[in-house]
Structure formats: C-alpha cells, structure tokens
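Researcher: Before we compare anything, I want clean individual predictions. No alignment, no superposition, just each chain on its own. First chain goes here; please echo the sequence and then give the structure tokens.
Model: Echoing the first chain and its structure:
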Amino acid sequence: MMERRRMDAALLVLLLGHLATALEVPLDLPQPPTITHQSPKDYIIDPRENIIIHCEAKGKPHPSFSWTRNGTHFDIDQDPNVTMKPHSGTLVVDISRAKAEHYESVYQCTARNKHGTAVSNNIVVQQSRSPLWSKEKIKPIVVQEGVSLVLPCRPPAGLPPPIIFWMDNYFQRLPQSSRVSQSLNGDLYFSNVLKEDSRNDYICYARFPYTQTIQQKQPITVKVLSKEPADERKPIFLIPSGPSSSKTVLRGQVLEMECIAEGLPTPEISWTKVSGDLPAKRTSFLHYQRTLRIVNVSESDAGDYRCTGRNRLGSVHHTIHIVVNAAPYWISGAPRNLVLAPGENGVLTCRASGTPKPSVTWAMNGIPIENSPKDLSRTVDKDTIIFTVVQTGSSAVYQCNVSNDYGYLLSNAFVNVLSEPPRVLTPANKVYQVIKNHRALMDCASFGSPIPNITWFKDSRSSTLDGDPYILHDNGTLEIHVAQAHNSGKYTCVARNSLGIYENHIYLEVKEPTRILKQPEYKVVQRGRSVVFECKVKHDPSLIPTMTWLKDDGELPDDERLIVDADSLTISSVTENDSGEYTCIMNTTLDHDSASAQLTVVERPDPPTDLELTDQKKRSVQLTWTPGDEHNSPIQKFLIQYEDIMHHRGHWHNLTEVPGTKTTAHLKLSPYVHYTFRVLAHNGVDFSRPSVPSRVFKTDAAAPDENPTGVQGFGTEHDNLVISWKPLSGFQSNGPGLHYKVSWRPVGGEWTTVTVANNSKFTVSGTPTFVPYEIKVLAANDLGDGPEPAIAHGYSGEDLPIAAPENVQVMVMNSTLAEVHWDPVPSKLIRGHLKGFKVHYWREHSLHKHNSHHMEQILVFSGNHSHGMLPGLHPFSLYSFNVRVYNGKGDGPPSHTQQFETPEGVPGPPTSLTVTNPSPDSLTLEWSPPHVRNGRITGYSLKYQPVNNSNELGPVEELALPANETSVTLSNLKYNTRYKFYLNAKTVRGAGPTIPQEAHTIIDEGNTQTSHPIARSPPRHPPHKALPVSPFGNVTSSVQEGGALISWEYWGPEKNVYVEYIVENSEDEEEWQKELVNGSQNIMLKGLKGGLAYRVRLVAKGHHDQSLHQSKELLVTVPAVASRQVDIATQGWFIGLMCAIALLILILLIICFIQRNKGGKYPVKEKEDAHTDPEFQPMKDDDCTFGEYSDNEDHKPLKGSRTPSNGTVKRDDSDDSLVDYGEGGDGQFNEDGSFIGQYSGKSVSRDTAEGHESSEAPSPINAMNSLNSFV
C-alpha cells in the first residue's frame, strides 16, 4: 500500500514539476557510453573482401568494448584472424586465411565505462551468394500463332535475390509490350504469339548486386507456326490463378501486385481498390499496366484490390486481398538520454507500436532490469521508467527492447546525474546571415544541470525578447518568422540555473534578396546565327554572387561557341543540338534565383523524297511524296514545279501549291507536254532545296484549248490596218503545226480570212482613213482548230485633224489666271482618236513697258475638254493665244488668235536699298523702284525700329512715301544706335514684299563710319526685247563680316561666268584673281584685306577662255578693322600708371614747396595766373574740339583733353602733356566719357578754384587736394 502511494506521489511530482529533456552532454563531462555507429541488423557481406563489423561509441571516460557471438562471449584474442580497431569496438576479420562462411553468426557489441553499459543490436552476418545456373538442355518450343506462351527463368537462389532481365545473343534487351512482358518472378509471358516472335536466342540473365556478377540461362528457341488466322478468345489470367488470392505485406515496405492475362486480341489490364481509392501519390503502374505498385505501405492500404483483363470479346476479374502487418516502430521516437541534477525527477519512455502488438522489456547496463540492483528512486511501469529525487551515483544506461513476430527495436538511453553550472555551446560572436522576409533562427545551444533557463536580449538589453515577432523555442533557439532590415544587430542569450549564469553574443545580418530583374526570353533562331540570353540580377552588395548556366538541367556543353559573360550567355553559330532549355542560376551564400528560357533552332526543311506518279490520265496525274525533316519549324506549304523537257528544257515553272499537312496533289496537265515534277517544302524559315525530279510523264497532242490574247487593230499609216496578237507558247500549242486564222471586216461588212504562221501580226492595206473594224484570231494546229475566238475592235490609220475649235473665248479670273472656252470639234473632222486640246499662249508685253517678249507656252488638256485654265500669268500684261485639237497623228490647225490683258498685281521688292549720310541723329535711305512692278506704283511704305546690343527690337515706326520718291532722310534718331529698316512698294492691289537693311547712327561728327552694305532684291531677268549690249545688269556689292557679297543679273548664253577682282591702283593688270560662278548670280569674296579698295568685274568667256562679255567695274572698299574700345579705367596697367603719375606729381609738389620756402618761383603757377583755364576755352564749331592752347615754356600744367574722332590722342607741341604718361597715340576713351570726367574736369576745375582763392604758394594740403582730383 505504501509502495502504491509512493508511486502516485512520484507521478504527481512529474506532472507539476520540471520535465527534463534530452540533452547533448559535452564530452569533457562524465557520462555513460553512447553507441554512435553500428552495422545493420541484417549484414550481408562480400565473401571476397575482409569482414568489417562496426561498433563505435562515446563516453567519459572512453568506453571499453566486448563482443558476443551467437549469444556467448567472443574472445577476440583467441582468433588470429580477428582484430579490433584501436579506441573502437569495430571488428576486422581477415578472410585471406579463413573462409567467410566460418564467420556467419549473430554478433552483439557491448560498450562500458564506470557510469554504465550500452549494447548494440544483434548483427546477423551473412555472406552474399551468387550460385551458378544448373546446366540443362532446353528443347525448342513450337507453338501455333495466336496462342499464349510462358518462358520460365527460374534463377538460382541468391543472397540477396538477383535482378532478372531478358536479352538476345547481342546483349540487346528483348522488346516488351502489352502483349509480351516480364513477370515479377522473372518469367516471360506472351498473351499471344505472333510469327515474328520466332527466334532462337531468348536468354534470361540474373545479376547479383553484391558480387556484381551476371549469370546466364541457356538460350530458349521459340518457333511459331503460322496457319489460318487464329481464333479470337476472351481473356484468361495466366497469373494469379483463380478468382481471388491474398498477400501479406509489412508496413513501410513496397507492395507489388501483378495480373497477366492471355487472349486474342491482347487484353488490356486495369486496377481498382474495392474498398476505397488507390493512394494516388504512392501508386504507379509498371509492365504495361500489368503490375500495381504502392510504396511506403501503411495500414490504410489493407483491403481488396481488383484487376480486370478486357478485350472486345469479354473480360476477366481477379481480387487480391491485402493484409498489412507491422514490425515494431516508434510512436514518439526512441527513448532519449536524461541528464538530471541531484534531487530532480525524470522519465524514460519506450513507446512503440506494431501488428501484432509488440512486447516491451527493459534492461539496465545490459542486464534485465528485474535482475538489476534495486533503486528506490526508480519505478518501472510497462513502457515507462519513472525517476524521482535521483541522487549522485544513480547514473546508468537503460536498454528498451520492443519485439513482435516481424522484428524488434533495441534502444539505449542513459540517465546521467550531474551538478553543472550552465554553459552555452553555440560559438561566441557567431554571425547569422539571413535573407530579408525569410525566417531567422539564432541558436543558443546550452548545457547545465539543472537545465538552464534561456533568455534573449537585443542591443541595449532593455527587455527580454519573448513576443511578436520573436519566438523562443524549448532548445533556446530564437526565431524571427519574417526578418526585416531593422532586425539586424547584436543579440545576447543568457543561460541561468541554480549554479550560475552564462552569456553569449551573436550577430544577425539581414540581407537583400537575390532577384533576376531581366529574365532570358524564349528564342527561335535560324541555324548558323547567334543568340544571346540575358540574365540581369540584383543582389545584396555584401554577398558574392555566382552565375551558373545550365542546359536541360545539366552542365553547359564544353564548346567555345558558348560564351558566358557577367549577365548573358551568347551562343554563336547555333546548331540543332543547341536546342533546349537554358537556365541561369544566381547563387549567393544565402539564397539563389533562377529563370529559364527555351531555345528552338530552326532551319529550312529538308527536301521531300520518294516522288511517285499514280492515277495517270490524259490530262491529269496524282503526285505523292514524303516530307523531309522540318527542323523545328512546321512545314506551311509545298510548292510543285514542272519542267517541259520538250519545249523549255532546263526551265522550271510553278504549277500549284498545297498545304503543309498534305503529301499528295492532283495535277491538271496540258496536252503535248513532257512533264517532270519536283516538290519544294516551305516552313517559317525558307523553301527547302528542290526534291529529286520525278520520272517523265508525257501527255498526248490535241487541238488548241485557247486562242491568242492581246488581239488589237490599229493603223500605222492613214490607209492601213495592222492586226497583232500575243502568240501561244509551245506549251499552249497542244500539238505540232501551230498556225493562226486571222479574220477582219468593217463593222457590218463581210469577213476576210487569211492564215498566218510563225508571226504575230498581219497588215491590211488600202483601208479608208480611221474606219472601225471587227477582228478575230483563231489558233489551230495539225489536230484541229481551237475554240471560237472573241471579236476584238480596232481602227484603221489616223490622219491630222482638218478643223480648229470654234467659238473660242477667254475670261480673265485675276492678275495671274485666265480661263479659255471653246466648242468641241466634230469627230469626222478629227480623223482619229481624240487625244485632247492644246492652248498656245504668249506674253506680248507688259502694260508698264512695251517691250516685246514672245516666249510661247503650251498647255495640254488631255481628253474631250471644252475649257481650260491658264495659270502663272504676269500681272498687268498683254497676252495672245489660240487653241488646237490633236489626235494620235498630231495637231490640227490653230483657231483665230485672240488677246487679253491681265489686271495689276502686287509689286516685287524694291531693287535696292542704300543707307547714306549717317550722322549722330539721322540717316538717309535711297532706293530703286521694283524691277517687277506688276502695275503702277502708288507709293512706298517704310518701317524701322532700333536694335540694342542684345539684338532686342524696339518699337516700330512707319512712314508712307509717295511713288515719285526714291530717298528719305530720317532725323531725330538715337545717338550711336543700330536700326533695322523694311521698305516695300504698293500698287492698287496692295503692298509687295519688303527689302530689309540695317545701319548705325554715328558716335559723333568727327567719327568716320563706313556705310552699311547695300541690300538688293533677288535678280530678275530683263525683258527679252531690247537687250542691252552687255548681258550683265544690276551689279551690286555689300561688305559683310565674312567678306564682300557681289550680286548681279545675267541673261547671256555663255556658260563660263567669272567674277574677277584686283586691288585698286595695282600696277600689274595681270594680277586679276577670278572665281568661277556658273549658274549662280551672287558670290561671297572672302580673304579681302581690310583698309583696301578692290576693282570688281564680271566676265563671260567662250569655250577657248576667250572673254566675250564684261560688266562695268565696281569699286568695293573693305573697311579697316576697328580696335575694340576697352574701358581702360578698369585695366590694371592703367591704374598702376595713374598711381605712378600721382606719386610723381606728389614729389614735384614737394620740390616746389621746398623751393617756394627758399624764395623761388613756380613758373607753371605763373603761367596759370597769366592765362585763362584751358578747360573753359571755347569749342570749335567745325570739329567739336577745344580751342588751341600752346605754351612754349619748359613746364606746362595738365589740361583737359578729349578723344578725337579717329580714336587717337593728339600730342601738343609741349613735351609735358598727358600723352607722355600714357600709351602714346593709342590711348582711347570709353563712349560714356569716363576718362574725361575722372582725369580732366575735376582736376582743372579744382586747381582753378584754388588758384582764384589765394595767390599764396601751395601747401602740402593743397598738393594733396590737387592729387585727389586725379584719383
């Protein structure tokens, strides 16, 4: 009773207390033995090799080993052939001096130290056997065609059983099918035999896997006798026999059921499970549905299975009852080691199952537990051992043995009683790397007794990590289900128990995932070309990527045509062997990504073969062929061609096309042709090469099937009719003796017929002019006439029209357009096919100038018109015109010539616009009237506007000028400003186009400025009448930045026109330089030197370089390039110069002051007193300069000065002037007068003022004031 209460209390403690889990004890701590490796329970050995029986174990101290053989102690030292490996329990049996079968036994290994004993499984050692086939003489088997047949194999028993297969004398596997297949026991079954099954080399082979040997049965000869067609019969099962059978299989093994039926026709086999469905994922069908295979069998697979054999005569069924038993298997795993601290509780569980139910026995240190010393802390309850309040010294190894009729399980589990402070087994500062959005697992493997408690911290250790997103596992591992970048950092795991505390740091790095940004794409490439697969990847920069390419899930071929780059694969000169699936795989140490694409290599198809002609008739034949290889591109069509070897040998013609799915064509043929056919296949790439031609097929001759085409009648003279046609080809003639019967008649008359051979036209003479005829041409040959021909229509020859259009009138629409009307000409007077009307017109003269032109123009109006437009007329002109009708022969007589006037139009631009007489506030514009006036000029319009230095336009001013004016002066313009001018002329119809011009007002009156270029309108050809002696006119020039632009008008016939130029006053007249200007009417002369004047002329020369015409010479002056005006007040050299002058003046003033104190006189001061200040001298009216001021004394005060208009500083007679302190005569001033204001006015006025205030000698202060006036 007390024992029972004690057990209940122990169980309560276990439920409420701490359940110890299996721990890995570090090897530096005391522990019982643990077997780490042993040979399998059923150990089959190769008799040709040494026997090695494994037994490895660990423990502290290291265990010692012993063996039992067939249940008794195996004294290894007494057997010279057996040795044990050092520090191990593994046995090595040397069979060189002993037979292997002598050591076929049951072995068990024992490993022990002072803390306990562990034992291995019972290891049954058997040698592999591959016995020879017993010799036998096999008689030939003779059977009737259609019956069933079984060829037995019956291999010798081996260990393990051999693998069976059937082959012939040439070691080629015999073909198997739903009719012929091998059973599970190795026999070869024929559901029915055929004549072709006859052979003398049916050989069964047995391969023994351990010894890698193959045994061969004697060949079997089968002779099949053929007779009348065999009688059909219903299926009958050859195996298994009867309506039902049963089979037992163990859980976890492979279940194979087979049903082989005989019958004629060959039966088809199907499978079902009577009591449920077949397990789809574990089921497969072998040997043409004759074998049902289920892998990893479970208890649910027990039941009835039905196989059915069926042909068209009936069916047969067989039911197989499956019983599933089970050798023992663990339910929750084998018992696990226990590490307990003194005073702790624990449980060892040995929970297993099996069919039938297995029994459980316990042992301690290899001794049945009932025979082991009593231990009050230990209680055995069936498959469980309970430990309560264990004490030091209770360590031991416990063995659990679970067995039934089909096997056993043996497991060792130790109980180790230790007192040990915690330690963390995971390496310190370990770095874990994980991909973003993946699971992160950080280990904190620990050991201690009692078992340590694990807590985790991150970075600052502000709180433990025990909630979302963290998961803490029982083994101390910290999990982050979906890692993000912010989860990176330093983590600390802390292990605690009652004996101490231990910390460990680890680091987590969250990396960006590897992703393929651009995947390879599906490619269809023609053979011989190149293809590129791109594979662009993004990955974490801290990870080293490795790109790998695969072809069809294997390595790329070792071929120099395949070039792998960083992000692409290039295949050059592709072949059909390159077709397949290409996969790029980007690997890093943490993850990978892959993408695949298919490559299809196409080529034009192979030519068709095996051309055959069948179903031959007079005018048709059937052509069949065999397609060639289509090379991965489906054949779209077949093209059938023929050669007429009688009429056009060597020339192939297209006959017809058929779809790519057909391999036959019905061909319609023509008579009297010797045909040869060939076929071309076409796919998405191109046509194939032609097939080999077919045999010749000849058709019989016949009368023509068709008549000539293109029959027409026309006249080449006014009294004939030419009949022509397109002749038939030899292919169309249908027979020998081809000729034509040509017939014609006037409309309503009688037919006239002639026979024509070897020609395609016939001329009928003596016909009336332009009379309609009916014509027909009939084809005929030696076998008869062709079909009745169609009637064609034609006309005899034409003659010129004999009448002109009447009632001709004109209507002027505007200044450039007129409309002419006329009445139609009667058909009989046209005497031919009406082609149209022609209007001849010409300009008599302008109404402004009566100079004659007479350049006739012709407008053609095709067809039967009664009016037409005359465009492009000159305004304000007198025109003459007439109208004519024309036919295929030519023009008729003209109508009476009439005249009309065009009204005024807008004028052209003025011929020239020149700017003259520039001044500071005015400009004069001169112009020439328009060359093309198009009416009476009623006035001119002038617009102008200023332009600033940024090329921005100012407001527009407009002036209306009378018609008789050719110049105007514009006053009140802005000083030194660029202006833009636009001038155009007006008539009553409005204003014409403008001529532009630009000009500057000048700086001051003393400044000379070259006038701006002369702009002229585009040249116009002068009237054709009253030509001047020289063919050159309006020769003008304008000087621009790039050179001098020379423009002119030319109306002479000569083609070689030159511009010649020479420097004015040149002594050598032979120095004229010339430029060829054929076809142009202007040229830019470049390279002219500034400051020089040039004589320019135009010359027209003949073929022998002879000068025929010459224009008047033109004088072109190229201005000198003006120096840029620079603000010298901001130049460094000028500032330095002024400082030097100021210093010099200061020194002079000091010297004067010293002399003054000594009683001397300052002559300059006296001179100033004697004369008026030059700054106030009157200005001359003519050149805006100051009045002269000269002094013959040695010294002279500084006076004001002003820049002359030529930009130089004039030097007075005195040597003591401001010029002496500058840059000589090249000194310049800004336009705003800054130099004058700073260095003239101030100093003089101040000196003058001071001079009037006192006549005393100047003091140093006055000298400084004088100096300040300059700076």
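Researcher: Okay. Second chain, same rules.
Model: Second chain and its structure:
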Amino acid sequence: MDVPEDGLDDMTKLSYFHEPGVLHNLATRFALNKVYTFTGNILIAINPFQSLEDLYNASVMEKYKGRLLGDMSPHVFAIADASYRGMIDERKNISILVSGESGAGKTETTKMIMRYLAFLGGHIFVEGRRTVEQQILESNPVLEAFGNAKTVRNDNSSRFGKFVEIQFDNRGRISGAAIRTYLLERSRVCQISDPERNYHSFYHLCAAPQEEIEKYKLGNPESFHYLNQSNCYQLDGVNDAEEYLAIRRAMNVVGISEDEQNSIFRVVAAILHLGNINFSKGEETDSSVVTDEKSKFHLEMTAQLLKCDVRVLEDALCKRLMVTPEEIIQRSLDPLGAAVSRDGLAKTIYSRLFDWLVDKINIAIGQDPDSKYHIGVLDIYGFESFESNSFEQFCINYTNEKLQQHFNQHVFKMEQEEYKNEDIEWSYVDFIDNQDILDLIEKKPGGIIALLDEACMFPRSTGETFSEKLYQSFKFHKHFIKPKLMRSDFTIIHYAGEVQYQSDQFLDKNKDYVVPEHQDLLSTSRCSFIASLFPRLSEDLAKSAKFSSLGSRFKLQLQQLMDTLNSTEPHYIRCLKPNSKLRPFVFENMSVMQQLRSGGVLEAIRIKCAGYPTHKTFAEFIKRFRILAPDVLKQECDDRDACIMMLEKLALRGFRIGKTQVFLRAGQMAELDSLRLQALGSSAKIIQRQMRTNIARRQYISLRKSSIHIQSFWRGKLAGKLYEHMKRENAATKVQTVFRGYSSRNAYSKMKVIAITVQALIRATVACNEFEHRKQTKAATTIQCNWRCHRDRLHYRQLKKASILLQGKRRKKVNIAEHEKREMIRRETNEKEKLEKQVEELTLSLQMEKMARTKLEEEKAQDVERLHHSLNAMRAKVDEATALLYNEREIAQNIIQDARQLMTPVRDSVQNAEKIQILTTEVENLKVLLWRERERADDFESLYMKAQESSEEQNKKLLETQGRVDQLQVYLNRMMSSVSDQVSELKCFLCSSSSTHTSITRDHQDNDAIDLMETSSSDSDFTFPAPISTSDSFQYTDGLQLMVQDISTGEDLGLEKSETEKERAFDDFF
C-alpha cells in the first residue's frame, strides 16, 4: 500500500517491511509532532523533548473515550482506554508496562496514563474532600522530588522503580490505589558525577523561603559536599523555589501534616550538614577526629536537627564496638573509615525517609479491600550503561532483562507456542532470547547474585576476590567477558549491548544492614519522627538481621513483580529517545534503530505481520459475531463448526481454525467489527422503527382518549343546560306551592295567636292566686324555723358553757397531778444518780482492796483462820441477800397482782411509788452491808500487813480466799441482774393493767355524764358538734351523749399517756 505523507499510524500495515522503512515512517511522523505509532497492539512513544499541551488536554481525552483501539490515531490515551474497557468488559486485571531507556519519557507517559484513568474512573469533585485520583496524581511530584535526579541522559530520571496499582469498584470508579517501589539508588546521596545532580529534594530545600533557610542554617548548593561534586546546580526551565512550594502543596493533598513536612525537611537538611563533616587523623593510631571549627559547626547542626547528643553522634561516626565472647572492645576508625561511616549514615537515613514517604502515601490514598479489578502501571528505570557502572546499574539492567523476557514471552514465545498448540501452519520467526543472561545473573547456586551473597558472608572478601570468583565460574559463558587490564571489572553482554561493571563497591552495597551504633543513635532521638524511622529491634531480631543481602531482597521483589504481571493481561508502551542530546526536532537514526532492536519492536512487527495477530476462542467469537449469522446458531452443531460456517458465510479468506481458537489475519478483525457495527446499526434501526411505531400508537391512543373526553365534556354541558331548564320549571312550581301554603299558614297563625293570648290570661290569673297562697305558707314556715333555731342555739350555748367549766376544773386537777409526778421523777432521778455514784465508789474501793491484797505475801495461820470465819459470815450474808431477793420477787408478784385490780391511774401511781420506796430502802440496806464489808476489809488489810512474813503455804490459802471474794462479786452482780429482770416484769404488768383500766372505763360509759366529766382528764380540747336547728327530730339526750363520747375518748388518750410516762420514769429510776 502507498504510504501517506504523514506516515502510517500502524507499522504492521507497511508494504515493504524493513528497517529503513520503519525508520522513515517514525521520522516522518516525528517531524510532524506525531510522537505515537502503533505496532499492532504495542504503542511506540518518541520523546519530543518539548511541551505539547494540545495533545493532552481534556478535549483530547473526550475524543478517545469509549473508542476502539485503532479507530483513532495512536495515542497513550488509546492504550489507557483499551485497558480500562478491557477491565470493565472482560472483568480482567490489566497491566501497562512502560519501558525504554533513561530519558525516553517513561515517567511522563505514566503520568498521562494515570491522568486518563482518573478522567475515566474519577469521582465528582466535592469541595473540601480529596478524591483518590487526586491523591494518586499529586503523589507523583512528591516521589519525583525525593526519587528522581538529573543524569547524563535525562534531566528527570527516576532512580527507583515504581508500580502503581489503581483499584476500581464494580461501577468502574477508582476506589483505592497502592504504590510499590524498587531499589532506590542510595549511593547517589553521597556520590554524583559531573554533569549529573543529586536528588531534586536537596536543591528544592536550598531554594526554600528565607525563613526556612535560616531555620535549618542552609545556603547555596555549592557549599555542601554532597551537591558540589558536580557543576550542575540548576535545570533549564525549572525553578527550584516554585518546586519547593509545589511539593508542600502536594504533601498537603496526599495527607502529610504540617509537622510531618517540617520533620521531613529537617531530615533532608541534616543529611546536607552531615556531608560537610570532615575528619583528620587523631592522636592515636588509626583514629580520627573532626577536622576544624566548620566541621564542628556542621556536626552540631546535624545533632540539633536529628535531636541527638553531639558526643554520641561523633562517637557513632568515629568509633565501632566489637563484641567478643570475653568483652566488648571499642575500636576507632581512621579518617577514611569515618567518612565511609558518615556516608553510610546519610544513605540509610535518606532510604528510610523515602520508604516512609511511600508508606505514608499508600496509607493516605488507601486500598480498597473489596476491589476485584485493578490496572497496574509499571514505571521502572531503563537500561543503563555509563563509563562507571556499579551495583545499582547491575540491578537496573537485571530488571530490564526480566522485563524483556516478559515481553518476549507475551509477544514472541506465547504467540508462537499458541500457534503450535493450535496446529496452525506458519513460518517460524527467530528472535533474541535472553534466558541465558538471566541464568547467568540469578541462577542458584552458581549465579552472580548467589556468588555475591556468598562473598559477603566472608569478612576478608574484596571486589578483586569476588571478580576472580566470577572469572573462574563463567570463563566459558558466552555472555560473560573478562576485561584484559582490569582485575576487579567484569562485562556482561545484555540484550541491549555490553556493559562493563566495576565490582569495587559491590560487596558493601549488597550488605543491606544498619550499623548498630547508627541504629542506637537514631532510635533514641528526641524527635519522634526520626525515632519512628529507626525503631528498636529485639536482640534476637538484631542478631538474625545482622546480614541482609540487598541483591537477594531485590531479586525477591522483582519475582513478585513478575508474578503480578503474569497474572494480568499486559499492554506495552515502548518509549524511544530520538537523540542523545535531549533536543527537540532531532532524530538520530542509529540511536532509534538500536532501541528498536534491543526492545524487540522489529521482531514484534514481523511476527504480527507474518502470523495471525488476532485470535479469539470459539465461545468469544460466537458471542461477539453471532449477530452476523443468526441462522447458523439455530443449527445443532458444536462451536468449532459454527465458527467455520459463520466465517464461510461472511466470505473471509486466509483465516485459520485451531483447536480452541479462531485465528485471523491482520485487518480481518477490523473488517468483522465493521460488519458487526453495520448489523448492530441495522438492528438499531429496526428497534428505532418499532419504538417510533410504538410511540406513534401511544400518541394516537392518547389523542383518541382526549377526543372522547372532550365529547363527553360537551355532552355533559348540553345535558346540564337541559337539567337547568327543568330545574327552573320545577322551582317555579315549588314557589307557587310554597306561597299558597304561606298564605294559608299566615291566616291560621293569626287565629292561633288570639286563642293562645286568651288562654294565657286565664292561666296567669290562676297562677297568681296560687303564688299568693304559696308565699303566705313559706313565710309561716320561715318564722317557725327561725324560732326553733333560736331556741336550739340558746340551749347549745348553755351546754357548751357548762362543758367548758367542767373541762377547766379537770385540766387544773390534771396539771397539779402532772406537776407532782414531775417532782417525784426528779427526786427519783437524783436518788438514782446518787446510788450509781455510790455503787461506783464501792466498785473502786473493791478494786483498791484487790490491788492491796495482791501485794501480801505471807499471813499467819491465825489470820487465815479468821479469814475462814469471815468467809463463812459472808456466805451467810449472801444467803440472806438471796432470801431477800426471793422476798423482793414475791413482793413484786404481789404488786403485779394488786396492779391488775387497780381501777384508777391515781391509785396505781401511789402504789408504784410505795413499791419504789421499798426498793430504795432495800438498796440502802445493801449499801450499809457493803460499807460494813469495806470496814472489815480494812481490818483484814491491817492483819495482812502484820502477817507479811508468813509462809508460802498461807499465801496460797489467801489466793484461794481472793477467788472466793471474786465469786461473791459475781453473786452480787447476778443479784442486780435478777432485780432488773423483776423490774421489767413489773413494767409488763403495768402495761397490761393500763389496758384493763381502759376496758373498765368503757364499760361505765352509761353512768351520769356530769360525774364522768368531773373525774376524767384530757390532754386536748374536744370539738363540739354543730347544732341542727332545722331538724324537727332534735333531742337533748343525743347531743349530750355525743359530748360524753368525746370526753371519754380524751380520757382514754390521757390514761395511755399517763401510763407511758410512768413506765419511762420507772426505767430511768432503775
């Protein structure tokens, strides 16, 4: 086919397929700023090295939305849209692999993909709320500032690998995301070559506002060792001050707080000051110290920013602890070792800071655990080959080898193997297979990474010994070359060319562990942010993690990445760099051709054109194109025969039928899709025709109903008018009838009024006469009532006056009796107090006697005899007291029996007083007896003093006598308790006698009322019943009986109160 002036957008359509034709097509499109070209499903993107805003605005995104791949001109949005539609329609996870050399535009291409996915699956913007897609897009500036740097080939080269997994919900909306990073180039923090730059974050901080500069004591980039190793400090078209503010805004969007931002830049400033610390030889051998005051200033600033002790920081840089079985030895480092320790600390801090940023962004964005589908975008470093290639370039090129193998498997191997499995005849196409190179690097146990880990386990291993080990192991390998003049170098023939590596620092960079002194220093920092970057490790974990291989860890991460890519449907974007000078409108044929060859693009074009680029399973083909041959599906046949019949009916040529799939030539899928669209268009027209018919019918039915409604309305109007006329006629008839009735009723009413008037006059005369008779009768009744009321009121007043006089006399008697009772209680209380004092004195005297008697030691036999006699006398007196107690009990019982026979509370009170007097006399007798006993005790004491020199045997007898005296005291106490029991029994009998008296009083209520009022007492006034003046049945005896009952009730209350006061007085006495 003829090539148009602007070139072909799909190079599989080239008639003359060779390298000059491919280069001419790409150069033609590049000259017209058409930087995108298809190679089948693979997109080739050439970096224009200029801004093309019109190529990526919102209107362009809208054009590519929902369009099939190939319908529009090639664009990165077309690949992104095809990935999104494939995920939605086929419910598969998709991955987009963006590959190419450094400077080919992979990072920008990744940004465009994420912008378009956010455009398709983004949420409606809500003010004050950060959406997931905003956070994903704003995370790019943060990661680029801390992970990108200027290299020889690219001003914004990613020095780490990034795989962004964008998650979607069932509606196709972005619901979460996760970012995974790989192998940050840590050595760039300390070492850069001219004209490269360090990471962008250092230069952005040096261009921060003046207050930030003064806060961190910063200056120009030329004043810092980690930045002045190169003469490049500024990038063309980039303002570091504006970039610093943009990073701050991006951090706010992704959810990094203001305090965390300050801590992040504090750490960056500390790394810059740390690099300016220089060391010189110390006084001791192989020791080092800080060189000058300038270095000490930077040391203090580093300690201040890291919030740790200056001396501890200096020791961590200049000294090491060696742990031996016997002791711990502190070893000083020479200046070179101290500088290496300083650089190691700087690399470790920056690496931990970058990992924290990635984790923080992932937490801020959030992952959707319910998401079932995702699109992964891989942006990883391209193939690198510099004058000096170290461990980082080795890992980068190893990654590109794995990605190239993945590309080979999906574009070449899987395509050819699928043809073989389906028994499709075609010409086999050879391609470059890099499996031997991967075996050379990662094979166990003899691969380069395995040998490097083995060398790191030996303390005395060096770069030369490691290289020598490689020479011996791979001297016959076709992809490994030993340089002739370099003893520590080795060369690997990669798929993209030869790369010579310098193994001097391979061992140190492969050891992925933190110096214990550095770990202890930073884990105890007073800054919580810095301490969180270096959490404390347990002793077992610290011992197990003492050696960790960075190469092995990176190999494991890379394998996990490949497993993720293998589980998804891949889409490839090959980025090309048109020239090595990074200039626009410059197209270098040799450079582009080398990239096409190393990327396998030419082989992909050849195999796509020579084979069958499109293949579908039978079920998928039938499901997609069954609309083109619906008659075939009605026949009873399997899917394979149905596909053959459909293709034959469509008159296609050149297709192949495999075991499970249909294989189509290039362009045939587009032809079938065109026929399918035509069939869908015809079906749509039929559907539209039916819908229009349905709509027209509905309109007709609606019009018909409306006309029927209108006719009904007008018929109703006519009927209404007829009804109104009939109604008027009926109304006139009714009016006439009513008028005639009214006239008749009016005449009747007049006659009725006259008759009623006459009747009313007659009835009024009769009523007046009756009223006069009732009035006279009522007046007579009123006079009689007033007279009876006056008579009863006068009698009531006389009775009330007599009652008040009787009550006054009775209250006077009661008050006199209460006064006498109070005097008696007062005297009894005084006597009781005196008795208690005497009892206490007697008790005290007995205790004194006991104390005196305890001091006696000896007594004569005669005194003991006398004591026995006195003891017998005391026993006799105890017997007398016991007999007296029995007599008192009999007396109390007699008192109780007498109390039961009492009739009035006055007599009861007198007898109780007599009994109390008798008890008082008996107590006095007991006091006399106790006093006599005291006198005898005094005699006994004098005798005891005389008998002090008696024998021990007599003393024992005295102790026995003392025990008997104690028994006497017990007997006395028992006598007192028995007396108190008798008193309590007496109180019980008094209560029962009071209730008996109350019942007797109620039995005599029928006696004369006046005598009862004279002999009874009441504590409260009684209420007089109101006189019933209007009652004809009033009797004098009923009112008197009511008064007597009231007085009797008051008497009962007075008796009960009197009895209660007597009991309280009796209790107080005892």
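Researcher: What stands out in the second chain?
Model: The chain has a mean pLDDT of 80. Additionally, The radius of gyration is 63 Å.
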